[in-house]
Amino acid sequence: MLYKNENGWKKQTNREEIFKFSEEYKSFLDMAKTERKFVTEGIKIAQAHGFVDAQTEKELVPGDRIYYVNRGKNLVLAIIGKEDMEKGINYVVSHVDSPRLDLKGNPLYEKYELAYMKTHYYGGIKKYQWASIPLAMHGVVILEDGKKVEITIGENESDPVFTIPDILPHLAGKVQGERKSGEVIKGEELQIIVGSIPSTIEDKDVASKVKYAILEILNRDYGIVEEDFISAELELVPAGKARDLGFDRSMIGAYGQDDRICGYTSLRAILDIEGIPEKTAVCFLADKEEIGSTGSTGLTSDFLGYFTGDMIEKTKGKFNEMMLRRALWNSQALSSDVNAGVDPIFDSVHDIQNAAKIGFGVVVTKYTGARGKSSTNDADAEYVAKVRNILNSENVCWQIGELGKVDEGGGGTVAKYLAALGIHTIDIGPALLAMHSPFEVSSKLDVYETYRGYKAFYKRG
């Protein structure tokens, strides 16, 4: 009669498989610290599992495994199902961008014979958490001749790293003492130190010789000149690898688990589908969720309609707008994103009776939003019941969750953009501690149960 929510470790006997899966997840996190690298690594894994580029296929039949890439930042994997797509598709949609620091278009300057680079933070961060930690630089630079140069600095032990120096506590009283927490480090103070040795050049027109020395290094190693920063996407992320956490190694500490924890588990779930599913299965790895799903690689673009329409045309040999609308309206989706786990230190922000806990399984979140459910999807009861039945049928360890107490805060996911297309949608993903920090914490059990939950959805959805 009573709803029982308990720690998943108490009933999970397959610990060896959980820990093995988590090691693979940690390794992937280390390789895929940006949305571009997630897509690049995802393509390699997909191809190794028999997926082929959809653009090379003129027609599709049940069982075909294909992928689509959008501007190097979206990856879609699909397995064509037995049923006509107009009867619906099963989508699992995650985002693979994470909060970070982006270099500005003209970032490099010198002052007091120190070279710095200016950044603009991306997504919701506590800015002070990014000071005085080692940072790595990842990204691409497009040179004037169109050549793409890929950069990764700070991940190998022999690499240099970067940092944002904080002011020492002895002198912080007047500078930071009266600031509110959100301004302990201000946005314009998020600047990385990049060098201190002056160039030996004797040109009298070069006044900033430390800055010039940095440009000499970049030109020598990458062919870059200062103007090339304008056509670059260079991101600063925490340096270092994902680590086991706790004496019992039951947790994972790493950067970017929101939302690459869902990206990886949804990717693995579709790779591990055996045979031909009844409905076409789609894993959609999106970009830009952390800043509102904007742009041509976010969920507000029409890329979902583009690749879905392409699949319809290649399976049916014809296409019209009504076919696409009918397919989307009959489809169902999991918006695979994380929820906030209860931290005992700050448990006052949660309604414990309706809050998620790490180690209690994947979290089903009926609605997110803020205040009066503003900007939420709010899944209908019929669809919640269906998802609940799918999870129970496959003995997946799951729980319900909300994003804090009413009027305490709130947040959003890609769910509302899927629902706007008529797709039945609900949020489902694991809980994290320290979400949006440089070192987020997850439970290994939750990682594994999230994978099992997505796989069950593909199988029974």
TrEMBL record:
Signal peptide: none
GO function terms (MF aspect): aminopeptidase activity; metallopeptidase activity; zinc ion binding
EC number: 3.4.11.-
Pfam families: Peptidase_M18 (PF02127)
Broad class of enzyme this protein falls into: hydrolase
Required cofactor names: Zn(2+)
InterPro entries tied to this protein: Peptidase_M18, Peptidase_M18_dom2
Family: Belongs to the peptidase M18 family.
Name of the featured protein: M18 family aminopeptidase
Organism (species): Fusobacterium hominis
